Structure prediction request, 162 residues.
Amino acid sequence: MAKKKNDETLEEKVEIEEASPSLEEELAAQKERYLRLAAEYENFRKRSARERESLSCLVKSDTVAALLPVADNLHRALSATGDEQNLRKGIELTVEQLNAAFEKLGVESFGEKGEAFDPAFHDAMAAVPDTELPENTITEVYSVGYKIVETVIRHAKVIVAS
Prediction:
């Protein structure tokens, strides 16, 4: 019986030794596959980072390009001489140009006198009693707010009727 048991153990060892090279080959193939996949992922991550940076630079340059004519006109206004009426007219045209640039970029302004106060879009600088306007209505605007779609770029700073 002991000889039969030794023979079975010996046969199992032989089977394991015969299977071992194929298992080692399979393990090596899986390891190589893993290393390739890891390298592909790293390349993807680096490429994605470069693309995000490139897109960010493109968006910034498009934004600045839309605002450059406004900057040019402001510089011209500073160096201009003439009467007050002509200067005012030039500033009004520059503001129109700025508004057109904002419109092209999808920027909307908000926060005007008479609008209802909304804490998601407005910062109340003060609350003042006002008998002419309903409660929580904007009575005065310190600075206009701006948004793109529903993303607030800057909250409007306002005074609210109480």
User: Anything to note?
Assistant: The mean pLDDT is 87. Helices lie at 2-79, 84-105. Residues 2-79 form the longest helix (78 residues). Strands lie at 107-110, 122-128, 138-143, 145-148, 151-154, 156-161.
